[in-house]
Amino acid sequence: MGSITSLENYAKENHVPIIQKEGLTFLINYIKENNIQSILEIGTAIGYSAINMALVDQNIKITTIERDKKMYNLAQKNIRNFNLENRITLILADALEINIKDKYDLIFIDAAKAQYIKFFEKYKHNLKQNGAIITDNLNFHGLTKHPEEITSKNLRSLVTKINNYKKFLKENEEFKTEFYSTGDGITVSKKM
Ligand code: SAM
């Protein structure tokens, strides 16, 4: 049987970015309060968030996409250790290069931040009526407030892209987005 603490320790020791505790608590509460049964996750890493979401209720089914083979292999092993292979479907692919037919109650976008608008536009078609798209890390450790103060060009460019995503959400006429300061900044977007 797997243990959540050992996944957290592995992530810490190997610098694998996983969802922070506060963000995870938010996600878990959202799943409970909205009786979420089907979830699509973009960005599996070692399977930490997928496993935690699946453990909320035994009726929950998750599809999660990961493009990195090493992460995919680790996630597969971890999902097996929790006996969740019947409820978590793991796909090895670049999420921008595949097409998923099913529709979900919840889509959790947690992959390359620079591509958030693309993920949103592509996967909004996989949302059920009344479904929600959740994204995390939109404060990017506080860096999004003053991008002009960032000296690294790559980091500044990434922060600008995150801010563009926030603007895209604010101005979106198809989806209404709630912004939460919880954890590292979370958004919940629902079709109007
Ligand atoms: N959701 C995970 C958790 O909290 O346990 C953490 C995911 S980590 C922040 C982001 C992951 O997304 C990385 O493992 C990365 O390889 C993957 N990723 C980035 N861009 C991707 C893409 N276009 N398609 C699929 N996976 C992607």
Note down, in words, how this protein is organized:
There is one protein chain. By secondary structure, the protein is of the alpha/beta class. The chain has a single domain, classed as 3-Layer(aba) Sandwich (Rossmann fold), CATH 3.40.50.150. Helices cover 36% and strands 22% of the residues. It has six helices and seven strands, in the order H-H-E-H-E-H-E-E-H-E-H-E-E. The chain has a seven-stranded mixed sheet with strand order 3-2-1-4-5-7-6, sandwiched between helices. S-adenosylmethionine binds next to helix 3 and strand 2.
Number of helices: 6
What is the average per-residue confidence, as pLDDT, rounded to a whole number?
Answer: 95
Which strand order spans the largest sheet, edge to edge or round the barrel? 3-2-1-4-5-7-6
Q: Radius of gyration, Cα only, in angstroms?
A: 16 Å
* SSE order: HHEHEHEEHEHEE
CATH architecture: 3-Layer(aba) Sandwich
- Can you identify the CATH class? Alpha Beta
Helix content: 25-40%
**Distance linking N and C termini:** 42 Å
How many domains, in number, for the residues? 1
Structural class: alpha/beta
Kindly identify the CATH topology: Rossmann fold
Low-confidence stretches: none
CATH superfamily placement: Vaccinia Virus protein VP39
What is the approximate shape?
A: globular
Bound molecules: S-adenosylmethionine
Largest sheet: 7 strands, mixed
Total E-strand runs: 7
